[in-house]
Amino acid sequence: MNEAAVAEKGDYVLCLLQQAHRSRFNAALEFAVGEANRLKLPVVACFGLLDGSNGFPEANARHYAFLLDGLADVARGLAERGIGFVARKGSPAEVAVALSRRAATLVIDRGYLTIQKTWYAEIARAAAVRVVQVEGDVVVPVGVASDKHEYAARTLRPKISRRMPGFLAGLDPAEVAHRADGLTLDGLDMSDPAAVLAGMTLDRSVAPVRRFRGGETEARNRLRTYLAGPFRNYGAERGKPEAGAASHMSPYLHYGHISPVEIVLAVRSAEGSEEDRSAFIEEVVVRRELAMNHVHYTEGYDRYDCAIPAWARATLEEHGRDPRPHRYSDDELAEGRTHDHYWNVAMAEMRETGYMHNHLRMYWGKKILEWSETPQQGFERTLRLNNRYFLDGRDPNSFTNVAWIYGLHDRPWARRPIFGTVRYQSENSLMKIDAKAYEAAVDALCRAEGAGRPGET
Predict the structure, then answer these.
(1) Residues 243, 235: contact at Cβ < 8 Å?
(2) How many CA atoms lie within 13 A of 138 on its CB side?
(3) Which of 235, 188, 206, 190 has its CA nearest to residue 76?
(4) Is residue 256 within 8 Å of residue 290, measured between CB atoms?
(5) Domain range spanning residue 312?
(6) Strands (E), 61-155
(7) pLDDT (tens digit per residue) in 214-241
(8) Which has the least CB within 10 A, 22, 75, 237, 292?
């Protein structure tokens, strides 16, 4: 990433774990271990914890609690391997550059959001040592898969399919030749994530959830349990939120607690039908990496005028003055106080547990478009609610899925009021699921979180 040479002297090889928070199956970390062994140095991993006015945009206590659980877990895993770990308050760039002053080289991982690209550019500009970036949170590197913004999954799928076999390989942890135990580096005590959270200045109006606990250990345990049971019905039941066929891996992928390559390799060797495997890999590779492609090649992916294709904006504008029988405020939406009972149930699941099944997430978003004054307002509200309550909000998948509601990666359909030729989703779509069973499941989940029944405020 820069022209600097490996430092002749250094106390360690530094690895920034800003995207991939895991001590194993981590391509950037394994590269750093290899470099350190070659240079006869220990490895130090680091993380920049954004806090206060410089916090990660739209992140709140729910997101940070999950994140800190993961950092505590990665600190334990790194210590077992003899790798040092330093978490400090500050931007990732500030922390990495400061620690790189004692490093022989700096290895960074890769994400695709604008804020991450800004950090990487600052590191490359300010670090006085060689900076190497290793892409490890997709199966096929984004630039290898495609050199342009793809129109839809159908245009990206064959490109990924051709390249994917070459990237599906295991990644065993290399032995660390020189342990970092003797290094003295100041940082946060990550052994008590609750204490770290209590010491942060952040939005606490959205509480942490009990449904999901962060960390690579939890991610792998969940994956093993899932593949031993519910996965075997994934192909037939993935579209039914009441069936329990979803893996719930999305929060763990979002925080880099597990590698998508590790997941795909486990899925390919698990018991199940070819339909189950193909359908799952389509979601975790093609659909997920279509989202990475979108944010990487779209400047302003979080803005309506940039993220939504021209044909969709034109037809929505044409129908912008159509009567809207139902309109709701932001508070009414967040609290689930609409006329649509099952929409309110889905909103309760998201608000109280940080998750909503994709089938309902699409219905949920289409209704916000229908109930908003303008499509621009609908887009902004959908994204705001998504990023506020979902554990995996503020993610390429979130930005892409919200834009899909408004026509991204889709084609014109039959013309309807309000939507024009953007795909419409009616209440009839709920007939494809057992809505009462879904409501009962959400009721139990909300009670486990200490909340009332869905729709209660």
Answers:
(1) no
(2) 26
(3) 190
(4) no
(5) 304-448
(6) 84-89, 103-108, 130-133
(7) 999 999 999 999 999 999 989 999 989 9
(8) 237
Which string of b and e fits 356-388 if b means at least 16 CB within 10 Å? bbbbbbbbbbbbbbbbbeebbbbbbbbbbbbbb
The token pair at 312 is: 């969709």
Tokens of 335: 């609290």
* Structural domain contains residue 455: no
The strand pair at 43-49 and 84-89 is best described as parallel
CA distance 146 to 394: 23
Give the span between the Cα atoms of 132 and 431, in whole angstroms. Answer: 52
Report the CATH number that the domain containing residue 241 is assigned in CATH.
1.25.40.80
| 3-state SS, residue 19 | coil
Show which of 297, 312, 347 is a domain's final residue: 297
What DSSP line would sit under 373-422, residue for residue? SSHHHHHHHHHHHHHHH-TT-SSHHHHHHHHHHTTTT----S-BTTTBTS
Q: Looking at 297, 316, 332, which one is the last position of a domain? A: 297
C-alpha dihedral sign at 216, 221, 224, 230: negative
Based on the domain organization, do 233 and 98 belong to the same domain?
A: no
| pLDDT recorded at residue 453 | 57
**Is the domain of 236 the same as that of 348?**
no
Q: Write the burial class of residue 169 (CB in 10 Å: 0-12 exposed, 13-18 middle, 19+ buried).
A: exposed
Alpha-carbon distance values, 225 to 142, 259, 263, 303 (Å): 30, 17, 13, 39
Mean pLDDT (10-residue bins), the chain, 457 residues = 72 97 98 97 98 91 98 98 98 97 97 97 96 97 98 98 97 97 94 96 96 98 96 91 94 98 97 94 97 98 98 98 96 97 97 94 96 98 97 95 97 97 92 93 96 58
Whether 371 is in a domain gets the answer yes
* Residue whose pair of structure tokens reads 């989703």 in the numeric block: 425
Question: Do 286 and 157 touch, CB atoms closer than 8 A?
Answer: yes
Cα–Cα distance between 269 and 138 in angstroms, integer? Answer: 19
In a shared domain, residues 238 and 358:
no
The Cα 370–Cα 378 span in angstroms is 8
Q: How many CB atoms lie within 10 A of CB 326?
A: 10
Helix, strand, or coil here: 14?
A: strand
Strand order in the sheet with 43-49: 84-89, 43-49, 12-16, 103-108, 130-133
pTM: 0.95
Model confidence pLDDT, tens digit, residues 403-457: 999 999 999 999 999 999 999 998 888 888 999 999 999 999 999 999 765 655 4
- Contacting residues for 83 by C-beta, under 8 A, at least 6 apart: 23, 29, 33, 42, 43, 44, 45, 176, 180
